[in-house]
Amino acid sequence: MVDFSKLTLSNKEPVYVQIAYYVKKQILAGFAEPGEELPSRRELAALLGINPNTVQKAYKLMEDEGYLRTIGNSGSIIYTDDEVLSSIRNELTKGLVSDFVIAAKDINMTFKQAIDLISEVWDDI
Amino acid sequence: MVDFSKLTLSNKEPVYVQIAYYVKKQILAGFAEPGEELPSRRELAALLGINPNTVQKAYKLMEDEGYLRTIGNSGSIIYTDDEVLSSIRNELTKGLVSDFVIAAKDINMTFKQAIDLISEVWDDI
Amino acid sequence: MVDFSKLTLSNKEPVYVQIAYYVKKQILAGFAEPGEELPSRRELAALLGINPNTVQKAYKLMEDEGYLRTIGNSGSIIYTDDEVLSSIRNELTKGLVSDFVIAAKDINMTFKQAIDLISEVWDDI
Amino acid sequence: MVDFSKLTLSNKEPVYVQIAYYVKKQILAGFAEPGEELPSRRELAALLGINPNTVQKAYKLMEDEGYLRTIGNSGSIIYTDDEVLSSIRNELTKGLVSDFVIAAKDINMTFKQAIDLISEVWDDI
DNA sequence: GTGGTCTAGACCACC
DNA sequence: GTGGTCTAGACCACC
């Protein structure tokens, strides 16, 4: 089940993008299964302390991106198939990795240093 | 030379920490060489549009961390030796790497996937 | 040039959909050429007597549908290539035709009657 | 039998015109046979949630157009003969067809395209 | 209750 | 000025 109480919003990125991003991560982490229902727009808005319109924008984005389905007035349902899943995984993964590589090069890390350090901490985290 | 005009301050972290962090990155990237002088407190404060006290706090932090020396009234000078350098490198590096590993595991990436992807984009960035 | 002064809004369909629909028709009719700039959100809102947010929603829809491009803060530009054009043409065309056929069958028109009547009035309109 | 519960009124056209139009369509579709009695003015007004005067206006229009007969206090009866039928068919048909042709030309459809598309979807609808 | 649309008005960064 | 985001609050149809 998607636990929105663990989502803390920053002011660096649009809120509706952060919500969609959070749901994507939850899907990849296996916390959101296909068929699962998200809270209603109003409910989530209350929970996050934001405006229902902003939640609506987030839900619309998720529908456009393909992993949320809204039918009539009966709530919104997580949808995933292999294609959607791999597209989400790809997007998040690519983002993470390039952010890391950019920052690593920024401080003159070498490829070997990067790999060694990741290897070093991987199992401890 | 450290170019502070490229530093944009966020409101997520204490400003003086951001300044120190920026200087550290500049040192590692080779843009700040030992012996180089940073702008005066007032000058930098004006440039960044912040209070001179905040800059003072940043300079103090950098002195405490060992890569800035202030002698009398003659301004503040970048100082690095191998020990300082490796300690900075370690700190920044560790942060980057653990942030990456945490996020990667968050979305169920495997070690192999992480390494392969980094390898894939390393030379393109 | 897209002449929005000829667009009259009804209350049967979402306003932002009507705006996008109007622009699509203008493109197909040859009144909106690629590279042409639409008015700013605020300007069009004033012209149509609606809220800028609604115009924003319309422009977003048009971007999503592929025939509008917004780069930075420099206004929004009509974009068309063969693919976009044929996709718009297809959509509008299919809609028109099926609406007509549904209505025609509703009143028990036969295929022959439909064709004969269309042929009869085609050149007079 | 004319099922008025399927009639939803818009605010784009006079309500009494919409009622008459609906009855005409029902006649052409074969749902309203000659001799069939329409509900009383008051009854239909209640059903549609409108003023009985408006229904009266609609019934008057249908009488004037020739397909409704009211004799004394014994209600209103659908009347059709070949002449009436073909006149209704003509009117509705012409409207549909010219609306379609106008819209089709609006988006630069050619006659051939129109015919081909109608032919294509005719049997599927 | 639900999703969805719209307004009025504020604020942001970018130029 | 520009595009874009967000809130507060209203209203709609559908159930």
Question: Can you give a write-up of this model?
Answer:
- Four copies of one chain form a homotetramer.
- The first copy, chain A, is elongated and about 55 Å long.
- Helices cover 58% and strands 6% of the residues of chain A.
- In chain A, strand 2 and strand 3 form a beta hairpin.
- Chain A has a domain at 4-80: Winged helix-like DNA-binding domain superfamily/Winged helix DNA-binding domain (Arc Repressor Mutant, subunit A, Orthogonal Bundle).
- The longest helix of chain A is centred in the C-terminal third of the chain and has 25 residues, at 82-106.
- With 125 residues, the first copy, chain A, is mostly helical.
- In chain A, strands 1-3-2 form a three-stranded antiparallel sheet.
- Chain A has five helices and three strands; from the N terminus they run H-E-H-H-E-E-H-H.
- The first copy, chain A, starts with 14 loop residues before the first helix and ends with a helix.
- In chain A, helix 1 packs across helix 4 and helix 2 crosses helix 3 (52-65).
- Chains in contact: A-B, C-D.
- At the C-D interface, helix 4 and helix 5 of C face helix 4 and helix 5 of D.
- Chain A binds a DNA duplex (15 and 15 nucleotides) through residues 14-16, 40-42, 50-54, 56-57, 59-60, 70, 72-76.
Helices and strands in order, then pairings?
Four copies of one chain form a homotetramer.
Chain A lengths: L14 H14 L8 E2 L2 H8 L3 H14 L2 E3 L5 E3 L3 H25 L4 H12 L3
Antiparallel strand pairs in A: 1-3, 2-3
Chain A binds a DNA duplex (15 and 15 nucleotides) through helix 3.
